[in-house]
Amino acid sequence: MLVLGIETSCDETGIALYSSEKGLLAHRIYSQIAVHAEYGGVVPELASRDHVRKVLPLVDEVAQAAGVTTAEITGIAYTAGPGLVGALMVGACIGRALAWAWDVPAIAVHHMEGHLLAPLLEEDHPEFPFVALLVSGGHTQLVKVEGIGKYELLGESLDDAAGEAFDKVAKMLDLDYPGGPEVAKLALEGNEGVFKFPRPMTDRPGLDFSFSGLKTAVSNAVKQHTVDGPLPAPQTMADIALGFEIAVAETMVIKCRRALEQTGYKAIVMAGGVSANKRLRAKLGEQLAKKGAKVYYPRHELCTDNGAMIAFAGWQRLKAGEQTGLDCSVRARWPLSELSPPGAVVE
Ligand code: KG4
Ligand code: ZN
Q: What does DSSP assign to residue 68?
């Protein structure tokens, strides 16, 4: 099969071609950062309009890069949720319409299932079962993964998602959007131990997360150390960024360790935009190795939103005969645990 993947759930247009024989042939990600930067966050209407402009030109570009014609495509996978409804509608309608025009099956893909399966695109990939730590702009979840479509939510954030916490801390430090990579960059200049922020919800049992207390602690530190001028001194800002990043990383380590103990599994998959964070990867890898567990992630460009993960997740279902009907509906909210194993034909 040759599957076209279309991702438009937020502020990246991701298009990819995945071949069941040859693997990922080509993919392109067009980031809308420049469109939203001046607003300090994603403006949904602008996101939808930009996806409209980009999807079809990117399909042509990816086909050319893959050395195939669109006539060779045998299935189309598009993100149907969770995400921004207008943005999702663009990818879903274009994907569905192309599938109808080309007379090939289409499949609606769950965005987080895409993230969760992305590490399977790599040569060094985990076998089922594993625990997935999904950390993106909208989600922070620990999921027990027995197989494709067999997901049990073990814990999640009760307030902000990890990526959202990074983005809000970035705002406090007057850094650009999206904040995660900016906070990480600033943290490289920081000194360890100057700020020790709370490790939220690690003192009680359970696998849920909460980032509001940590955010407040960071906000208080910023205010306390702002003496002359609108912000603390540059070195203090870097120390705060590092203190925050370490607090998030250690919280994740503690929760992942618990999830491994609870399930008895030996592999953790880390996926979603925040999994691009190098310190988080390093800490998790090194700390969980002590427990005999291995951490897997996708390559850097497949951590944040992309079409490759959607093509791949879609193929898992298309090859089992599953397909989505002509209605092309999308969902802003869509719990991962509602998914079933591949095979059911959705009409
Ligand atoms: O998965 P993703 O691309 O989009 C969603 O589905 O939400 O994740 C985006 C999130 C943003 O909050 C962004 O700030 C965060 O991932 N992020 C990072 C890093 N790169 C992206 N957070 C921390 N460190 C990074 N290097
Ligand atoms: Zn995502």
A: -
Does residue 241 have its Cβ closer than 6 Å to ligand 1? no
Q: What is the rounded CA–CA span in Å between residue 17 and residue 113? A: 18
Q: In this structure, what token pair is assigned to residue 346? A: 């959705």
**Residue 318 corresponds to which tokens in the numbers above?**
């298309």
Look up residue 128 and give its two tokens.
Answer: 């089922």
Tell me the pLDDT tens digit for each residue of 92-119.
999 999 999 999 999 999 999 999 999 9
- For ligand 1, atom 8, name the residue with the nearest CA: 273
DSSP letter string, 306-326: -HHHHHHHHHHHHTTT----T
Strands of the 106-110 sheet, one edge to the other: 23-31, 12-19, 2-7, 75-81, 106-110
Q: Ligand 1 center to residue 273 CA distance, Å?
A: 3
pTM of the complete model: 0.95
Closest CA to 180 of 83, 254, 279: 279
Quote the DSSP letter at residue 343.
T
Q: Is 78 exposed, middle or buried (0-12, 13-18, 19+ CB in 10 A)?
A: buried
Residue 134 CA, ligand 2 centroid: distance in Å: 9
pLDDT of 345 reads: 66
Burial 252-263 (b: 16+ CB within 10 A, else e): bbbbbbbbbeeb
Q: What is the pLDDT of residue 201?
A: 84
The answer, yes or no, to whether residue 177 has pLDDT greater than 90, is: no
Which of 27-31, 143-147, 177-181, 184-188 is predicted with the least confidence, judged by mean pLDDT? 177-181
What are the E-state strand segments in 150-241?
150-156
Mean pLDDT, rounded, for 77-84: 98
CA–CA separation, 198 vs 182, rounded Å?
Answer: 21
Dihedral sign computed on CA atoms, order 97, 101, 107, 109: negative
**C-alpha 106, offset from chain centre:** 22
